[in-house]
Specification:
Elements lengths: L2 E13 L2 E12 L3 E5 L6 H8 L7 E6 L2 E3 L2 H10 E4 L12 H11 L4 H14 L15 H13 L5 E5 L7 H12 L4 E5 L3 H7 L2 E6 L2 E4 L1
Parallel strand pairs: 3-8, 3-9, 6-7, 7-8
Antiparallel strand pairs: 1-2, 1-4, 4-5, 9-10
Helix pairs in contact: 3-4, 3-5
Amino acid sequence: MNDLFQLTNIHFAFEPERAVLTGAEFRLGAGERVALTGPNGAGKTTLFHIMVGLLIPQRGSVVAFGHPRREEKDFRAVRARAGLLFQDSDDQLFCPTVREDVAFGPLNLGKSRGEAEAIARRTLEGLGLRGYFERITHRLSGGEKRQVALASILAMEPEVLLLDEPTNALDRDAEVRLLQILTGLPQAMVIISHREDFLARIATRKVRLEGGRLRDI
């Protein structure tokens, strides 16, 4: 199996006395849906940020899509191919309207405005968000923002999805719809969630991050 991501001997600390990752190893293969579990503060979000280059480890190697990634310039292509859903949707949505937020990624990938807006509309409709195209982003509820943030990632058609608490603020109906959508997608994905029932229904394997290292469970 060709690995989409291969993290080897990853060490990371925000401060010398606060080690977060101490030799973490992780691989993600095509089509896998991996549940990433562990206690609060274990470093799960930090691992996501290292995978897309928002943080650079002090030691260890990141190989993504077959190439070593060491510097910021190396990770630009990674972020076009791996979509990260932030834990807080307000960190992801920054445009005045839903249309602009969801079309932003395709525009950055070189689509024309017409193409980007068509992709945005189609993606929103696929998530059950028909009629949201011209909504004002800051007036959305927390659950609505969550779904629009996911739409902004899916509109870029990434090869990998890194989903940090995707069910946050969703009501039951929206959560069921999200589960149906995610299980029908071809992309490999890694999901952080405190919802064991959600993970049990979507993941093909589970890993646990604790004490700075990962292990299969």
